[in-house]
Amino acid sequence: MFQMRSSKRLWGSLSSVILLFTACAVSPERFTYRKSEVCILDHPYIHKYPQIRRTCCNDARKKYYTTWNTIEGPLMQYFEKLESWKCDIMKEECSRRPYAITPYSEMVYRRFCNVTEFRRECLDSILQLTTRKSVLPRSNDSIPDEEWLNILKPLKEIATTENIYKKPCLQIALHDVMESGRYHEIINIQMPFCALTWCGMTADVSGFDKISDWTCLSRGCRANVVIIIITCCIMSLTVIIANVSVITVFIRTRKSMNSQGVFKLSIAFADLLVGIIVIPTFISTTYLYVFQKHTGPSTLAYTSNFSNKSYSTFPPKYRASEGYYDTVGFLTATSLFVSVYTLFIAGFDRLFAISKPLRFRSYKTKKIAKYSICVIWIASLIFASIPMFSRLDNLQYGILTGVFIALRGEVAMIIYAVTLFIPTIITWVNTALLLIAIKKHSAATRELQTAGEVENQDGVRGIERQLARTLIIMVGTFTLCVLPIAIVAATQPFMPSVNFDFVHIPDAKSLTAVTSIEFLSIMILASNSFWNCLIYNIRNRDFRQEMKKLFSIRGTTCESTKNRN
Predict the structure, then answer these.
(1) 450 vs 168: CA distance, rounded Å
(2) Which of 486, 105, 552, 64 is nearest to 302 (CA)?
(3) Assuming Cys at both sites, which of 272, 278, 324, 358 could form a disulfide with 320, CB separation 3.0 to 4.6 Å?
(4) Are 267 and 384 within 8 A, CB to CB?
């Protein structure tokens, strides 16, 4: 009897354990699952367990909010998920509408938040395009799904034209009539002087192979793109001519090849790199981001999991290879590093020449300058190549302001501060000391001239002072050119609503304004490669005469040929 009671108690305990284990196994809070396998329309857990549905909905929102700025998530697919899963956050999205920042994205919200209003608003546009006669419903009636699809069917046979992309109603209607295939969204948020561009289309319509960002740009934005390209061509040609002339004059004129001449020659080569490589890449990058077709294998496609539809975008990271970004970023950084470090060393050279003139002449300063330039170029090449071999995601070359490729990420500001900002600050301090030294020596020279004690040395010291003043003007010009982009870069981390690396809820007007200001700042920085030639012409009479000879050589040759004949 005792054994029977014991066995019953044991069996009861085992049954309780089994029931508890079963309950834990089926409870969504207890068992583990993969979101990629569960968060699909036909999975039984989505509608059976509210906790799983909430998890999938929140995960979809988090993923879209963190990837919209990298153009890796179609808005249409995001709303299809929320609608298919019957997410509670759909009401919140429709109330806040954080991405209703363009006519297209605003119409997407209307389509999923109030489909009756959307259909009534877009009916006239669709009927005008399809030339299909239909009995219009009364003002308070909704258009049934079957009737709506019948109205949209002629859109399948319509070829893709630019008129379609001016009408968001037609773009979204193409999605509704699509039973299978791929729906593609074009998003461009970094083009200067352009409002955010956003449109959508099906990849099955006739003419899709000609689609690019240019297709969706407004007329004003297209005009701005053309102006940007023309401006870059003119600036590149101007910088090349100016710095080739500087290099030619310094090489041909032995008198100018002192220590400062060596430094100026180094800066001219760095500026020539800007004219030949950096500024032309503004044009090539504009082509990749505006004119490149969206039909390549690099287009980022997403399988729907809800139907036979798929979705795609063309993210910036796929519009050019890593080699393109690394090469352009490397050359851009090299030219900038060389300019900063050359001015940095040249400042000490002038300060030494003014404050210790006798000791300065006793050193082989020209030879020291050549060694310094070699070290500067080697160090610049090493610093600029670090991101190319880095495996850190926040230490890579990437696109800025739609045209400019540079180091970006959280570590970029630290590297720029150490390698550029600190040397620039020291250069400014050195320039201030140089100004003080020039004033002191000018006063001392006037006193000696009054006493008649310095007659032979005045010419030498005058040249040294002239070189020092020229360097001060060069540093001042460089400061004015680099200051705008430095201010923009320093303030962006404190403005998350316009920082492309962190922004989740966009402010369309602010993004457009900041992008345009960044572009202007970069163009001002690039213009520094031209001003040095102008400074030499104004400050140095010998250089000015050599420039005249250089550009009059053709006329001289023609006259000598005529005289011979």
Answers:
(1) 82
(2) 64
(3) 324
(4) no
Which of these three, 99, 121, 148, is where a domain ends?
Answer: 99
Other beta carbons within 10 Å of 409: 18
Residues in the chain: 565
Give CA–CA dist 92/411, Å, rounded: 35
Q: Kindly report, residue by residue over 286-318, the tens digit of the pLDDT.
A: 998 899 888 765 566 665 555 677 888 888 778
Q: Is the residue at 292 inside a domain?
A: yes
Calculate the CA 72 to chain-centre distance. Answer: 16
Per-residue model confidence as pLDDT tens digits over 499-545: 655 566 777 788 888 888 889 999 999 998 888 888 888 777 778 88
CA distance 479 to 428: 9
Nearest to 25 by CA among 45, 9, 43: 45
- In three-state secondary structure terms, 310 is strand
195 in a structural domain:
no
| Per-residue DSSP letter, 139 | T
Which domain-ending residue is among 37, 70, 99?
99
The domain in which residue 56 lies consists of: 27-99
- Nearest Cα neighbor of 304 from 494, 47, 78 is 78
What is the C-alpha separation between 428 and 400, in angstroms, rounded? 27
Instruction: Tell me the pTM.
Output: 0.80
CA-wise closest residue to 51 among 61, 41, 36, 38: 38
d(CA 190, CA 503): 13
Q: In what order do the strands lie in the sheet with 197-202?
A: 197-202, 180-188, 308-313, 300-303
Smallest CA-to-CA distance from 233 within 397, 401, 403 is with 403
Are residues 239 and 271 in contact, defined by beta-carbon separation less than 8 angstroms?
yes
Q: Are 79 and 226 in a shared domain?
A: no
What is the rounded distance in angstroms from the CA atom of residue 99 to the CA atom of residue 462? 64
**pLDDT digit string (tens) for 164-200?**
667 888 888 888 887 777 888 888 888 889 888 898 8
- What does the block give as tokens for 119? 């259909």
What is the CB neighbour count within 10 angstroms for residue 31? 10
Together in a domain, 88 and 227 = no
Dist CA 343 CA 531 (whole Å): 14
Residues with Cβ within 8 Å of 498's Cβ and at least 6 positions away in sequence, in order, are 492, 507, 510, 511, 513, 514
Question: 473 is written with which tokens?
Answer: 């003007």
Distance from C-alpha of 398 to C-alpha of 404, rounded to nearest angstrom = 8
Tell me the two tokens of residue 277: 């490589």
- What 8-state DSSP symbol labels residue 562? H
The position carrying tokens 């995601």 is: 393
CA distances from 93 to 99, 108, 199 (A): 9, 12, 20
Residue 440 lies in a domain: yes
Q: What are phi and psi of 453, to 5 degrees?
A: -100, -15
